[in-house]
Amino acid sequence: MRFPPYMSANAVDVVKRLLDPNPETRLGCRKFGPAEIKEHPFFTREINFQLLSRQKEEPPVSRSFSQLIKYGNTHTPTHLSTGSSCGFIVI
Questions:
Q1: Average pLDDT for residues 63-85, to the nearest whole number?
Q2: In a domain, 42, yes or no
């Protein structure tokens, strides 16, 4: 995967771990479930959700549509894991 240069190391790590194709090792699918995602350094060190929810803080990444296309996903998976209860995670 390629990531744009404006993404922090914690942002890159959380994306990689959320997109892990193995549900046994994917972030949020292990013993502590969604709590594991909430405790990731990206969410605990880089985002103040209280300020963000009150619209007092800007999101850490705010890019135009053209920038999203430039750094879009260039890899299309040929298969998806099925049978996992961890396909979608609601935080």
A1: 50
A2: yes
